[in-house]
Amino acid sequence: MKSCNDDGGTPKSTAIPTVGTAKISNPIKFGRFVDDEEDAVLVNISRKKVEGNAKTKKKPTHIYFEPAGPREKIYYDPSKTKCAVVTCGGLCPGLNDVIRAIVMAAHHEYRVPSVLGIQYGLAGFVPEQGYDVIELTPDFVSRIHEFGGTVLGSSRGPQDPEVIVDALERMNVSILFMIGGDGTMRAASKVVEEIEKRGLSISVVGLPKTIDNDINYVSPSFGFDTSVETAAMAIRGAHVEATGAPWGVGLVKVMGRDAGFIAAQSALSCQEVNFCLVPEDPFDIDGENGLLAALDARMKRRGNAVIVVAEGAGQDMLEESGKKDASGNVKLSDIAALLKREIVAHFKAQNIDISLKYIDPSYIIRSVPANANDRIYCSFLGIHAVHAGMSGRTGLVISRWNGRYVHIPMDLVTKGKKRINTCSNYWRAVLESTGQPVSMKNT
Ligand code: ATP
Ligand code: MG
Questions:
Q1: How is this protein annotated for GO cellular component (predicted)?
Q2: Ligand in nearest proximity to the CA of 90
Q3: Is the ipTM reported for this complex over the cut 0.90?
């Protein structure tokens, strides 16, 4: 059996920077303050990592993430604190919930008088763009969680960190909350650097957004649960279509540029998927081990099939689009169009007219409101971001790790991207549920 390291590695440092010493008593009256030492969360919880390796006598490495939560002493004086919130990158279920949670916690827990909403991502900091800031009051945000998208709007495209920090200084912002994906966290790191260079006391707190579940040490972030639920609905539809016609094939394309977690997780949740194609597991279409051979066998055995493909799967078989979006992300070529063409042609060559129904729920997945689990998650993320910011911490993201909310240094989450480990038991479970061959590569 191929051996795999599934633990995601152990970071060398998990220390979180601060803008200064916290000296002000926290005004929160209810609950319990977090103890940095005692409440720290182990990064790795396997026995080998906790107790050391019995066979090799290797000593354990105890690395902890800082716990999230309210501190007894805070850095910013609440009555003189101004916060700002910005949402960047693509849409994801739960963005409004996070904005709402930040505003409610800042106003009600700390009595912060002002939370500003920056419109349309980083572009909102640039005066020439002409976007007004929005005063985010509890009244303004009270019902926004009922809707998908982000009330602040979002955008892609780089902006100069100097211009962003100029804007923060002009507006007298003490804490900036940046909600976005890996690109946003990279931008946030540059903003932190610029703030340090100028010797300012402005905290930057990141809230990781990744519908694809591809950010390191974010397991998984908000919106993923909702997106799997929505993808599963499309798959169920594809299954009904496939079983409702002779030679029925249901083909569903879901999000997943570089990581196929939505495809894998929704396949697991449905159990009706026969082929799950993800970017991490290259496959051939033709040849004796390719997809068409396996699909042919399945169709002749059972008369129908459901295929779920992540948008980034099989890109090596397509001509590169050569196009990039405003943030420099390569625009993917359409794998579903290729599959449709090849599958129909394959059966046509045998005089079989298949009934192929293609469903692409991609933008529906992004734009629906968050489900119950994600709402709860978003609410905790927002509240913990406010606690972290008020304590004077900066350059961190809020995440859930080993079931606890933690602070993670920004540079850790931007170092690499999370992918499905195709020799893990997780991927084996996907293969078991679909019944597809372990590999559909010819060599
Ligand atoms: P998604 O998961 O939807 O792609 P994202 O946060 O990665 O979310 P991007 O559009 O890549 O979305 O980035 C968001 C913002 O951060 C954009 O304005 C982008 O230009 C900026 N950004 C991305 N990478 C960097 C970087 N290395 N340095 C500075 N800014 C960056
Ligand atoms: Mg990105």
A1: cytoplasm
A2: 1
A3: yes
Measured over the CA atoms of residue 148, residue 153, residue 158 and residue 163, the dihedral's sign is: negative
Q: Yes or no: is domain 224-366+423-434 CATH 3.40.50.300?
A: no
State the pTM of this model. 0.94
What residues have their beta carbon closer than 5 A to ion ligand 2?
Answer: 181-183
Going from the first residue of the chain to its last (443 residues), give the mean pLDDT of each consecutive group of 10, the final group possibly shorter: 49 91 95 94 86 79 93 98 97 97 98 98 97 98 96 95 98 98 95 98 96 87 93 96 97 95 96 97 96 98 97 89 81 93 97 96 91 96 98 97 95 90 96 97 92
212 is catalytic: yes
Question: 182: CA distance to ligand 2 center in Å?
Answer: 5
Q: Is 312 in the pocket of ligand 1 (CB under 6 A)?
A: no
* CATH number belonging to the domain at 4-221+368-413, selected among 3.40.50.300, 3.40.50.450, 1.10.3720.10, 3.30.70.3040: 3.40.50.450
Residue 334 marked ligand-binding: no
DSSP β-ladder status, 404-409 and 355-359: unpaired
